[in-house]
Amino acid sequence: MNRFHLPESPETKQTFPADLLTGKVAFVTGEISLRGSSGICMNQTLSLMQHGANAFIIGRNLDKAQRAAGELSNQTGKKCIGHSCDVRNPHSVQEAVNAAINHFGRIDIVICGAAGNFLAPISAMSSNAFKAVIDIDLFGTYNTIKATIDHLRKSRGAYIHITATLHEKGTPLQVHVSAAKAGIEALSNVLAVEEGINGIRSNCIAPGPVRGTEGMQKLSFKGTTTEDSSPLGRWCTFSDINNLTLFLVSDAANILNGQVFRVDGGERHVQPTNDYPNNIINFQKMIDDGLIENRDASKQRQAKL
Fold first, then answer.
1. Which residues of 28-39 are buried (b: 16+ CB within 10 A; e: fewer)?
2. d(CA 248, CA 152)
3. d(CA 57, CA 109)
4. Which residue ranges make up each domain of the chain?
5. CB-hemisphere CA count at 13 Å for 16?
6. Contact 81/100 with Cβ under 8 angstroms?
7. What are the phi and psi torsion angles at 172 (to 5°)?
8. Which of 34, 60, 71, 300 is deepest in the core (most CB within 10 A)?
9. DSSP secondary-structure letter at 173?
10. pLDDT at site 38
11. DSSP codes joined into one string, 230-269
12. Phi–psi pair at 55, nearest 5 degrees
């Protein structure tokens, strides 16, 4: 029997009308980068704008956020504003939301994608390192919700939170991210129940391995993960996530609330977690072999906000 490999998903331009989100405004946290449009949130924002939305994107580096916003505007003809913000600081997030309202007068869509990550076992991870990821991922999401909720009540808007599948299978070396993403999914469920009565919907998109992301390039172990190990024969792509994003913020999905959508082709059911148990037993050897970087866990570089 020949091995099946799932064809690439169509681009959103082929599946959704160009004016789907005309008049809508998206507020986006997460990796917004010009490096080949390598971030999930960058691609989500591009798709939203290609279908009529304007966008307000935030990052800790103002210059990078503004340059990314300019590139998105050039590609789509829609308005995009880049703003400096630290999602760990509720006052910083509130200032960013106020700026978005001053620019656009409304917010209809919020994508919470700010995240940090590195590889480390519990035994080698400091409390500060654990807290750093919780602060960015979980508290960053909470702060974003708190700052935007009144505006989404007015617009009957939708939240999308970017989580993961790591915590479903006890992924080694990812306790900090697993705890944060599980917390975000719980937060989204409560938000869906409390704010559904106000017309707000809240859902999570949980990608598995995503082809072309910085995370797969820097956080996976060389030679231990292949696309053939996925039941459908390929990893998730930006198009998969973009299509789901457009659907979830559209009227076609207005009954969907409090859900977690796993975008992994069933990978989480069969995929071994990064060469377990060798990755735990031989943690130091993996550093020596260059499979992971030799850095103190408390000083690991965080993904950009």
1. bbbbbbeeebbb
2. 15
3. 12
4. 18-265+273-299
5. 26
6. yes
7. -60, 150
8. 300
9. T
10. 54
11. STTSS-B-HHHHHHHHHHHTSGGGTT--S-EEEESTTHHH
12. -140, 150
Reduced to 3 states (helix: H, G, I; strand: E, B; else coil), residue 256 is coil
CA distance 137 to 31: 12
Neighbours of 286 (CB within 10 A): 21
- pLDDT value, residue 305: 45
Left, alpha or beta for 283 (phi > 0: left; psi -120 to 50: alpha)? Answer: alpha
Which residues in the chain come in under a pLDDT of 70?
A: 33-38, 211-225, 271-276, 278-280, 283-305
Number of helices (H), then strands (E), belonging to the chain: the values are 12, 7
pLDDT digits (tens, 9 = 90+) for 220-262: 544 455 777 777 778 789 999 999 999 999 999 999 999 999 9
CA 305 – CA 60 distance, rounded (Å): 6
**Predicted local confidence at residue 276, as pLDDT:** 67
Q: How many CB atoms lie within 10 A of CB 22?
A: 12
What's the pTM value of the predicted model, to 2 decimals?
0.88
| CATH of 18-265+273-299 among 3.40.50.300, 3.40.50.720, 3.90.180.10, 3.90.78.10 | 3.40.50.720
Given this model, what pLDDT does residue 304 score? 41
Residue 191: the pLDDT is 99
Question: Are 183 and 133 in contact, with CB atoms under 8 Å apart?
Answer: no
Distance CA 44, CA 26 (A): 10
pLDDT at 248: 99
Structure tokens at 103: 């620019």
Q: How far apart are CA 46 and CA 38, in angstroms?
A: 12
C-alpha span between 126 and 143 (Å, rounded): 24
pLDDT at 49: 99
- 3-class DSSP assignment, residue 101: helix
- In this structure, which amino acid lies at residue 293? E
Q: What pLDDT score was predicted for residue 297?
A: 44
